[in-house]
Amino acid sequence: MGESITHLKVPVEPEQRGTCLGPDGSVAHVSRVLGMISGRWKLPILFRLFAEPAMRTSQLLRDIPDLSQKVLTQHLRELESDGLVARRDLGRQPPHVEYRLTHAGLNLLPVLMSMREFSRSHSLDTVERSAD
């Protein structure tokens, strides 16, 4: 039964296994980032904020079809608490709030672009292999 557990077969020396699987290992860090961006609308929100330096809630709602105000607010709060998005209240009446990416949010762009390229190349590889 123990042999069927594949996550214990990480190709590292046994004394270095914590580097990958420990509480501060690679798996924990990658899982944390995936948790930050999981949610149906988080990636569309992040990519819109990559495209525009600052956006109001109404702009995000216009640009992302089928996204409700409630879910947008929820996702923006989660992204803010994860340190990826900053909320800026401009102190006007009626309330004027803008959202922008933080430094951490901007640093996430190359990671997401790498994931996009992996997806593109993986899709092509899968199609090519199935054709052979």
Automatic annotation (TrEMBL):
Say if the entry is tagged with keyword Transcription.
Answer: yes
This entry's Gene Ontology molecular function terms read:
DNA binding; DNA-binding transcription factor activity
Task: Tell me the protein's name.
Answer: Transcriptional regulator
- Report the InterPro entries cross-referenced here: ArsR-like_HTH, HTH_ArsR_DNA-bd_dom, HTH_HxlR, WH-like_DNA-bd_sf, WH_DNA-bd_sf
Record PANTHER family: TRANSCRIPTIONAL REGULATOR (PTHR33204:SF29), TRANSCRIPTIONAL REGULATOR, MARR FAMILY (PTHR33204)
All residue ranges annotated as the HTH hxlR-type domain in the record: 20-127
Per its UniProt record, what Gene3D superfamilies does this chain match?
Winged helix-like DNA-binding domain superfamily/Winged helix DNA-binding domain
Pfam families listed in its UniProt record: HxlR (PF01638)
Going by the UniProt record, its keywords in alphabetical order are:
DNA-binding, Transcription, Transcription regulation
